Amino acid sequence: MAGFMPILKELETKGIKTCIYDRLGYGRSAKLIPNQSLKQKMEITNLMLSHVLKPNERVIYGGWSAGVEVSIAYSYYFPERVDGLIFMDGYPDYLLLEAIQANAT
Question: From CA 49, how far away is CA 59, in angstroms rounded?
Answer without folding.
Answer: 9
